[in-house]
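Thread: Newbie trying to understand structure tokens

Hi all, I'm a second-year student working on a class project, and my supervisor (Dr. K.) asked me to get a predicted structure for one chain before our next meeting. I've only ever worked with sequences, so writing a 3D structure as a token string is new to me. If someone could post the tokens and maybe explain what I'm looking at, I'd be very grateful. Here's the chain:
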Amino acid sequence: MKKNRVLIIGGNGFIGTNLCRVLSHKENLEIHSFDLVVPEEKYEGIIYTEGDFFDNDTLKHQIDEIDTVIHAISTVNPGNSTKRYIEGYQRDFLQTVNLCNMLIAQGSNLIFLSSGGTVYGEQKIQPIREDAYPLPINHYGTIKLCIENVIRTFNHELISKMRIARVSNPYGPGQDYRKGIGFIDAAIKKALHKETLEVWGDGNIIRDYIYIDDLCEMINCLINYKGEEDVFNLSSNCGTSQNTMISELKEFIPSLSVVYEKKRNVDASKIILNNERIMSIYPYTLTSLEDGIKKYYEFLKNNDDKRSY
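---
Reply by user tm_fold:
Sure, no problem. This is what the structure looks like when written as tokens:
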């Protein structure tokens, strides 16, 4: 049986690295990882290459003979996009349009990892369904939505089947909160290091957290998906406030210290994503938040490689 050749752009990132790990065990897939450098630690069966996503010649060479591209790279995040938004529009947006054009020309597919935590903005009806009208309140979400709109336009005009994955708030091994994303990651690591966790606002912000392995398996479902939908929320369908998260963590990390700072205007007050659409094709049981936090805590506590800290 011919294998589906899958290229992960951003294969060294948090999601990309875990995708390599999870997808390397799928017999029907041939996994390629593409990033600026080849990682020191490699997963067996992954084909690693290095290069610059923003170089057209390099990108065209990388996608040659690839069946599906998973776009998991971004040069901005919700926190820094207020200052670096020009870079996001000039680089992330335009180069992703180039990528779409290249893939359509050669008949390949795309799964674009968008941001369910930022594209919707403030919504009254929760959990938020995919057909809700998106109203991002920061440039990061707006950049993602611009890319989504281009993908939907290509799908409509050219009958292509590119997919949009609106990812909620993943957590787990390989995450690094210092890159601007990861409340659970920050809370556990700061507790282990006896440092103070900074909370922006009163701690009542609600987010939809999903364990990284569950997210990767959902993305695998989209690789094989042949249906008509082009937008999927990848989420747990459950909301948890930061204060609730802190209380749960203190049950087994009593030393966790917290300080509350001024609320950031880039953060929506509540984001819970309806996951009925992806769960209709997802064959597994999702990891509960309690089990996921304990699992990640044990991993960090027992992990000998402290570079992730």
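A couple of things are worth pointing out once you decode it. Confidence is low (pLDDT under 50) at residues 304-309. The CA atoms of residues 17 and 217 lie 13 Å apart. Feel free to ask follow-ups in this thread.
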